[in-house]
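hey can u check if this looks right to u? its 429 residues, i copy pasted from the old doc so theres a chance i mangled smth
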Amino acid sequence: MECFVQVMVRRVSFIRGNFVADYRKNGMIDMQKNNSKLFVLIFLGVLSAFGPFIMDMYLPTLPAMTESFHTSPTMVQLGLTACLTGLAVGQLVFGIISDRYGRRCPLLVAMMLFLLSTAGCLLVGDISHFVALRFVQGFAGAGGVVLSRSVATDLYQGHELASMLAMIGAVNGIATVLAPVGGGLLSVNAGWKGIFCFLLALGVLLLAGCLRFRESLPTERRLHEGWRQVPRHFGIVLHNRRFVLYILQYGLALGVLFVNISSAPFIMQEHYGLTAMQFSLCFGINAVAMVLASVFSAKFSTAEQALRFGNKGMLAFAYLLFACLAFGSSFLVYEVLAFGMLAMVGLSFTASNTLAMDCERRYAGVASALLGAMGYVFAGIVPMLVGLGDNMLLTAGILFVGGSCCAYACMQWGASGLHPVRQLLKHFD
């Protein structure tokens, strides 16, 4: 009898083992089927483009909204500030909770919040309520931005991760080009509410994508510590010197980009005498440079090579742009140099994102949140600096060089592990 029981226990254990193995195998196959590479690319690309869609589409409607709400331009512009603040804060929040509860559930919450806030923006009649809803809209949109990087890090690594982030960056770049143009067209044909109707439709499509999306962070890889451990998670990530240097490089490169965004309208229209339509065309062409560079970054054998090439190119073009603006070159020279510099900025973006996320896989949500927040910090500071001084051309040229030099130093320090001063001394030795 005892022998019979032992045989039955072994048989049941064998069957259970086969069942579990088969379940895991089929589950993995099902996950790969639902999270196909094409679906992931499109889904994450659109999620990452939340920032440009929420902010840039809104810009052409500012004068019309001032009249619609019977308020001052300052109050309407406050809606943009509130949205930007929400994007920064939301990334920190969603990054934390996604490491604990997975990616799918926070994404669903973010999309539902986005739909509710966007619908509220369409229905509200008071400007103060509109500004508050814009903060919620930015906060919810941040979930898509931060989780797009986290999901990519969950599913891919190495060169595959670099290729995926490059394609996501390309989609984001296309959104940056299309958002202001699309916003202008919608505002002309459907008023400012037409833009928010488009954002509402986009939210519905992304919610459908979230429902189809299969969880990318298994339970065993999630963080199970209590909320009191959250500061420790941030501390662990911030103690990773390479990660900190890579996100600093990303922030500084983004700062160089925003120097161009803030100064280009004045340089092109006031200094070189371009019309608004001509400026829009040139601005779009320069944005295409970033898209092409993001795709090209995947051609490098390693992300380190792409980052090094991008930073060296950005530094070279920054010095040439400074000379161009300081000594009064032709518009053609300025446009070629701006195109080249933005291409190098786009190249370094993809590489620094890849390297930063690759060296902090365990805390991918927190890492992605810090990466995004660092970008918005520099994006918020730089436009104020561009307006300093009497000569905007000279100020912009100095900021181009200063930002590029600092980004290059961070890249060198992160790649070599040596302090820039020690590295310089070693070079001379």
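The radius of gyration is 24 Å.
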